[in-house]
Amino acid sequence: MTSSEVWDAETAARYDADSAEMFAPDVLDPAVDLLVGLAEGGPVVEFAIGTGRIALPLRERGLEVRGIELSTPMVEQLRAKPGGREIEVTVGDMATQRVGAPGSAALVVLVWNSLSNLCTQDEQVACFANAAAHLRPGGRFVVELWIPEIDRLSAGGRVALATAELGDHIVLDEFDVATQSCVSHHYRHDPDAPPGTVRYGTGRFRYAWPAELDLMARLAGLTLEARHGSWDRAPFDHTSTSAISVWRSA
């Protein structure tokens, strides 16, 4: 059984609104542009396809897309969107579930930190192996994953402020550096809610450094082709808060 949390209907219904900044053209368009180029005509498999933030634009650009998603309510949100029913989605664990013909995908995509939803190293290693099993020779696996800013922790501390957006959304990250685990605590005030009302949510993650990801990729028979600090191909360096990694099959 996967260690990933399964998002319920209420969370899925709020997902797009709560993540509105990730749907903004200046965020989404560079990601889609880079992925379209890497796909070389497809087909594409997206792990943790969610509500289709990436998959629907890829399909609009002419690519065949299949997806794997653990949460049935998230899939229902995708299927309610224009074109959503045209994308084949299988409900299952991205570390083990297979879709399409083995070894046929030109590109496997896993974006916006979703690899860290797998809370054990074994499951993350299995996810890389599963991606490799989907890829044709020369196919690519692309992962977008955050670089945990543990330097924000005070000496001996475990909790750090991650974001504060005008007081409407505050995130506190609780780290355990011994296990590379993190619990994010989200506090939101919805504009239409009564004054003083706060909506609380939490999520569990396992973070991994780029060097560890490269070893997972090597175990799966994949070789690092490129690493960027953002979707617009900014260099990855010590100041990067995220890594866009591209590995290629033999």
UniProtKB/TrEMBL annotation:
Keywords: Methyltransferase, Transferase. GO terms for molecular function: methyltransferase activity. Coiled coil: none annotated. The keyword Methyltransferase applies. This is Class I SAM-dependent methyltransferase. It comes from the Bacteria. Residues 44-139 form the Methyltransferase domain. GO terms for biological process: methylation. Transmembrane segments: none annotated.
